[in-house]
């Protein structure tokens, strides 16, 4: 399942693409099996908290027009001596309210072709 690869994080779009109905998603949220962590982004209850879980939440929130950035990206690229908290993400424009879980940076000037993927994360 997608959520396993994403440290317990799944989006509404991913759940629907996997064949779930909106009712099935609502039932999971209502029963506490899933926890809403941001609009359209859910955490499977009982998933162990981890830094990579926060990365996936930020990654899903940013969407295809976003990427992890700053110290967060530096750690993923293997640079030493960087703390990486809080998680940082870059998006092209202000489209929604950010989560309190991560820092959002905005830029109109960046090329998605300059973004690399590491373990599925942009």
Written account of the structure:
Strand 2 and strand 3 form a beta hairpin. The strands form two sheets. Strands 1-3-2 form a three-stranded antiparallel sheet. By secondary structure, it is of the alpha+beta class. 32% of the residues lie in helices and 20% in strands. It is globular. It contains five helices and six strands.
Keywords:
122 residues; alpha+beta; 3-stranded antiparallel beta sheet; 5 helices; 32% helix
Uncertain segments? none
Task: Using the CA coordinates, give the radius of gyration.
Answer: 15 Å
Q: Name the structural class.
A: alpha+beta
Largest sheet: 3 strands, antiparallel
Describe the secondary structure blueprint for this structure.
Layout: H1 2-5, E1 9-11, H2 12-17, H3 22-31, E2 34-38, E3 41-44, H4 51-62, E4 66-68, H5 70-76, E5 87-91, E6 102-106
């Amino acid at each position: 399942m997608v959520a396993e690869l994403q440290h317990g994080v799944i989006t509404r779009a991913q759940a629907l693409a996997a064949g779930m109905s909106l009712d099935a998603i609502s039932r999971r949220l209502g029963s506490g099996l899933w926890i809403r962590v941001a609009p359209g982004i859910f955490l499977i209850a009982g998933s162990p908290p981890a830094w990579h879980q926060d990365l996936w939440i930020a990654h899903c929130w940013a969407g295809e027009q976003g990427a992890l950035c700053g110290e967060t990206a530096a750690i993923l690229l293997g640079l030493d001596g960087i703390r990486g908290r809080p998680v940082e993400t870059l998006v092209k424009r202000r489209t929604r309210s950010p989560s309190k879980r991560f820092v959002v940076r905005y830029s109109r000037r960046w090329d998605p072709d300059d973004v690399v993927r590491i373990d599925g994360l942009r």
